[in-house]
Translation initiation factor eIF2B subunit delta
Amino acid sequence: MSSPEQSQAPPATATQNPPATNSSASQTPPTDAQNGANAKSKAPNQNQNQKQKQPQKPKATDATAADGSGEKLSPAEMKKKQKAEKAARRAREKLEREGGAAAGAGAAGGAQQGAQQGAVQGGPVQTPRRPQQGGRDGLASTPRGPRFAGGARGTPLPTPTETKKKEDKNVAVFGHLYGIPRRSTIAGAAKEVHPAVLALGLQIRDYVICGSSARCVATLIAFKRVIESYTTPIGTSLARHLTTHLSHQITYLSTCRPLSISQGNAIRALKLSISSIDPSVPEATAKTELCEFINNFIREKITVADQVIATSATQKIQDGDVIVTFAGSSIVKQTLITAHKQGKKFRVSVIDSRPLFEGKNLARALSSAGLDVQYSLIHGISHAMKDATKVFLGAHAMTGNGRLYSRVGTALVAMSAKERSGGAEIPVIVCCETVKFTDRVALDSIVVNEIADADELITKQPLSQVTGRPDPHKTVDEKPGKKGNNQNVTDGIASLTLDQNAPSPLTGWKDTPNLQLLNIMHDVTPAEYVDMVVTEMGSLPPSAVPIVHRMSTNS
């Protein structure tokens, strides 16, 4: 029985000893020495309790309750001080991020050194943490300076050199005219574009169809084929969907070459006719009406108009006249041939310019018809104007202020006729259909014009001659003792023969600094240089162009 009591005694004493000491200590009154010791021991505890009670992020009012002198700050001053501290903190963080090169290297070395010191002092050895890029510990592991590229090794970049900017070959004055370059192939064309329109676009781009009237007629004929093969989709009407379908064809043609004024007027009239079709009309009937409208438009505005203009302009030609014309206008050619068929005797001087040389075809056609033709380039215009009596010009368009918008060089010809050195002015007559009239106003040839490829100025035209030359390998057999016996015919011809294989001086002009080429298609002739405009509605002064245009549009 004694053994269980002995075994339970030790736990009882172990649990009762602390209360005994506490009770004894509380019963005995503390001395002064003990009070001092207790006060000293409570002071650190109170400080620790105060630190624990303080929040981790103290309020701004506690930090800025008083300044360095202990004076209390007003709310405005406290707010100002907070902004200053925030700006300083952001600046410090920015400097730390920018100085990441030294910080990254110091972080790696400092972590390794701290691990060694911890091992010597007996503290826990921590594995050095790899500094992360953009973090606050290492900030950046790689240098961010301008001479270094990303990577831990900090591979230096080559010394930055100013890259030579490619020279702009566009003429600044006509900079607004440089847009999307002309289409060179049918690649990338919309699937809605008709094959006839695809072929027409390439022909217009390559100047196979060049004149304003020819482009207008070819466009309408192509649209006629588009309408014939058109089928109205289910759920829509012809009047609504056909206009959208034609827009794809027009967009393609405009990428090959900008539309002429006559093309724009013809397309506008065709769209107006499409929109006026009654939705209840059967599709076959509507398509037939549209094709008939196109035929009537070509016949009235182009074919019959040219005949009327040619007949009217022929009356202005008298026997013995010397007619000067420029480039290759179809209506001027028809006028001159009509006058020749009427038995009038006159000469024609054709002035031409590069790079299209349209006057060559005109001179060939007139000479084939039996006319006396003289051909010269535009630099010989002063010589051609000496004997001239009248000037006949074609037109790309007639503007609303009575100015002539035509092939570049036309203004020079008209000005030379009006300001001839002899003093007598030469009448300038313009042959133009009303379909080429526009209400646009042109003050110069800079705002509105067409830019062609500058490389066309470099292309060499094959030289041709009317009379044949003798064979250069054939020698002239003469009797001995006479002058020039056995002379080679090539002695005099060699100096006159041009080397066809010689490169053009402008070859590689894009790589030549400070060299720009400009190839514009049209110019503007002032109204005071034009005496008469012959149209299918009669002969009228340039000032009457807007009135006639309004009449023809309303009709």
Q: What stands out?
A: Residues 140 and 282 are 76 Å apart (CA to CA).
